[in-house]
Amino acid sequence: MGKSLTEKIIETHLVKGEMKPGEEIFINIDQTMTHDINAVMTYLAFEQIGLDRIGIKTAVSHLDHNLLYINTNTPDDHIYLQTAAKRYGVNVSRPGNGICHTIQSARFAVPGEILMGGDSHTPHSGSMGMLAIGVGGMDVATAMTGLPMRITMPRVINVKLTGKLKPGVNSKEIILEMLRIVSIKGGLGNVYEYTGDALKNLEVPQRATITNMGAELGATSSIFPADEMVFKYMKAQGREDEFKEMLPDEDAKYSEVIDINLSELEPLIALPHQPDNVVKLKDAEKEKVQQVFIGSCTNTSYADVAKAALVFKGRKVNENVSCTMAISSKQIYKSLLKDGYIDMLLDAGVRLLEFACGPCCAIGQTPATDGVALRTSNRNFKGRAGSPSAKIYLVSPETAAASAITGTFTSAEEILKDNINILDEIVEPNEYYIDDSLIIKPLPLEEAKEVEVIKGPNIKHLPIPEVPKENVILPVSLKTVDNISTDDITPASAEFSSMRSNIPEMSKYCYFRYDSSFSQRAKDMGESIIIGGENYGQGSSREHAAINPMYLGVKIVLAKSIARIHKSNLLNHGIIPMIFEDKSDYDKIELFDELEIDNLREGIKNKRVLIKCSNKNLEFYAKLELTENEIEVALAGGQLQFLKKELKERGIISE
Ligand code: MIC
Ligand code: SF4
């Protein structure tokens, strides 16, 4: 029986376990990546592990998210990250080079390899026939040791793309259509593998919009084959010698097939406040647009920006719209500059920002009070842009440009009319501007050992969780609704991102937008439990959404369901993730209820615990959806303690 591409890649990396969907398997990792607002915890953990150098082929530390330096914390973090990378054999992509996913694909991704990245949009590099999985920072620290990594064998879903996108319709529409079909939690446990005739017209950066935003489906990853388009891209990057054809077998068997005819797609828009709230642009109730942001790793390829520039050409940004753009890399900017597109943007009144994440995660460009923001990025959660009163809509760069001109929702076709076909003429360059001078390569081991790792005063210790006790009585410190995102738990923004190295300080703001009394309440309770709804912890991979509650004494998160990366982050940082056996019990529990569990450690081993609500004369069961290895991590009090034990047993570290 034929194999999918995902199975082929996993097979060549498999160390332990059976490749059956849902089974725990262990795989070798070729590459890791981290970025500045998450990585301090990752490298602090790596330091604690006690190895002299990384044990994998390629690791990259990208300094790309928070480049505003609104205080001394972030530049201090960057100095720490740069020196720690030098010390341990990690590449550094310096500020100004570009957004992690764009750089990782352009300069490091290799078809057939496996990448683990400390960012939920790591599947971006799946556009090049690579299996790229987003995880939390502690998992990246573990992967950097070179030990095989635990994953759950995914179900592989085939997405068959036929037809051809019309001009003015972007690959953003393909992933928005997927979100409409699958929903924000429908992808849990799946890898989406794209095939079909339409691939011959989809270039790597267009594919990356899809694999990148596949994170919004809650999926493990998304992948395209490494075919002639990937060869073209790698050749244009001067890396054709690293190309390897990677295709699924013709008779590959998939768990499910989804068909999308690209010729039928029209401009789409995701309405506030979830990325799967997708409707046709023409059906969306028109709003007066206050802000347009064309940026992020999702949608600022050369072709994306060039097409937006053609929509703007000879026209002006509406006087009521604040229109900014953050192109995702210096490389793309230079190519656009050479080809005259930057002039078109500047002449239209578009404000160019740094090659960084920036506004995508609220690092600058907060919309006005009640402002309507049209963005080409991937998430529109409430508060994501820095203001809970803003309404964020997600669209393609073509639609964003057209709407910036009129000041309301407008398609590129409405602006360009009969001239719309000019957008079809834009293709990715055959040769990109190549200059790796902003990448610092690893030093040889002996030189690296001499490097001094510099830690600024804001960099505090990584808190180590306690091992779970036998019997607990835990008051409920918070009860949440469905689809709580990690942005709700610990927002990004310039200010909060700059606090991420200092958990005692940052934990004061845990959940502050959702329930500003949570942090103090949890602290006062000493130990507590959080009750969550469906898809708890969706969105970003930031493990601070687990570390902060752990620091505040939260021992268990009991929810209707928990998003993949967040579940792993909870476990890694000593919080036990539990699921209601009967979801209707969720309705019976309230804030301040006291939940009692006897024989918790035994319950963890058996993956089932009896919970008594002492003040309500109520009893119910919770289950633990954990693998054998995850049970050991839970019992050890988190991944760091588990890993140190394991490395000692293997004789890799001594104390
Ligand atoms: C995001 O897009 O939300 C981020 C900021 O890139 C995060 C990473 C983080 O918060 O550390 C992500 O997607 O994982
Ligand atoms: Fe950066 Fe936004 Fe991409 Fe996250 S989604 S990596 S914040 S550009």
From TrEMBL:
Q: Which stretches make up the Aconitase A/isopropylmalate dehydratase small subunit swivel domain?
A: 524-581
Q: Where is the Aconitase/3-isopropylmalate dehydratase large subunit alpha/beta/alpha domain?
A: 7-286
Q: Where does the source fall among the domains of life?
A: Bacteria
Describe the protein's quaternary organization and the partners it interacts with: Monomer.
Protein name, entry field: Aconitate hydratase
Answer yes or no on keyword Zinc-finger.
Answer: no
First-level EC class: lyase
Q: InterPro entries, alphabetically?
A: Acoase/IPM_deHydtase_lsu_aba, Aconitase/IPM_isomerase, Aconitase_4Fe-4S_BS, Aconitase_put, AconitaseA/IPMdHydase_ssu_swvl
List where the protein spans the membrane. none
What's in the keyword line of the UniProt record? Lyase
Cite a single GO MF annotation: aconitate hydratase activity
Its source organism is Peptoniphilus ovalis
Q: Its Enzyme Commission number?
A: 4.2.1.3
Q: Do you know which Pfam families this protein is assigned to?
A: Aconitase, Aconitase_C
Q: PROSITE patterns under this entry?
A: ACONITASE_1 (PS00450)
